[in-house]
Amino acid sequence: MIFGKEKEPVILKENSTAEEQLIALMELSVMAKGKVKEDIEQEIRNIKAGIAGEENIIFELKNSHIPMYILRDIYIEYEDYKAQIDFIVVTKKLTFIIECKNLYGNIEIDNKGGFTRITEFDGKKKREGIYSPITQNERHIALLRKRNRDMMNPVSRVLAKLTGYNFDDYHKAVVVIANPKTVVNDKFATKDVKDKVIRADQLIEYINAANAKSKAVVSNDREMEDFAKMFIDMNKTNPTDYVKKYRDQVEATCPECGGELVLRSGKFGEFYGCSNYPQCKYTRNKPKE
Ligand SMILES: [Zn+2]
């Protein structure tokens, strides 16, 4: 390039609420006992895997040498819709909505687009249906599409019509399988579904190919940056308290033996006592309302 060097990827937002969840769960697990502790530890493993998967994706994007703005973990609320988007990648042509899956085990996609996770433990195979990340992505895109349409004023509506602007020509949703060990069996999946699921090491190739095929108008640097910043402005703190469920369970278990705490009444009023009484004599005052 004569007029300046080609812009490298820019990470506009790298933090994720998963990291906060992880810290909160690790604190809880210290106090937890028994089954709740096991559940929390499983959840910690899942979150850690999710974070590792996302870091895989950031690594690929950072080293792509494609001018792009990278946004991680964007939460958008619009009317009654909510979207927790793992990655939004703004390039000169297309904007990519990325759902990252880092699962333990293998994945099977059926002819209806259903996802099944297969894990093996002690030689026993376990199959469980999982919420389709493609559907998840479609919901995210639907929210953005609706918001985009509602935000248009009469002038931009006319302009869109004149230039033939179509939201779907500028946005592409893709599911990225981040764990290199995961085997994806998609032999029964339709081509349409197959095209929407890729592996992390195919992401850059995918972005390049999609942009090459796209008829979208090329943005300049300033437009790209403004567009990416618009998503930052849309981003809110996700109000879902993912840790609450576990916190409540920990509070309802005896910190000494892991038994269930039950409400009892004594001569000084109500209190919580361990269900393993008389073996366990733990008690806790009932909080005043
Ligand atoms: Zn107890």
Account of the 3D structure:
By secondary structure, this protein is an alpha/beta fold. The protein has two domains: 236 residues, no CATH class; 30 residues, no CATH class. It is 39% helix and 27% strand. It contains nine helices and 13 strands. The chain has a six-stranded mixed beta sheet with strand order 1-2-3-4-8-10. A four-stranded mixed beta sheet has the order 7-6-5-9, with no helix packed on it. A three-stranded antiparallel beta sheet has the order 11-12-13, with no helix packed on it. β2 and β3 form a beta hairpin. α1 packs antiparallel against α2. It is elongated, with a radius of gyration of 24 Å. The relative contact order is 0.15. The model has no long low-confidence stretch (mean pLDDT 91). The structure holds zinc ion. Zinc ion binds next to loops.
What can be said about this structure in brief?
With 289 residues, the protein is α/β, with parallel strands linked by helices.
- Give, in spatial order, the strands making up the sheet with the most strands: 1-2-3-4-8-10
Can you tell me the overall shape? elongated
Helix tally equals 9
Radius of gyration: 24 Å
Number of domains: 2
Order of helices and strands: EHHEEEEEEHHHEEHEHHHEEE
Bound compounds, each kind once, are:
zinc ion
The main β sheet shows up as: 6 strands, mixed
Q: How many beta-strand segments? A: 13
This entry's quaternary arrangement is single chain
* Mean pLDDT score: 91
The percentage helix is 25-40%
Report the structural category. Answer: alpha/beta
Q: Return residue spans where pLDDT drops below 50 for at least 5 consecutive residues.
A: none
Provide the β-strand percentage band. 25-35%
- The end-to-end distance, rounded to whole angstroms, is 70 Å
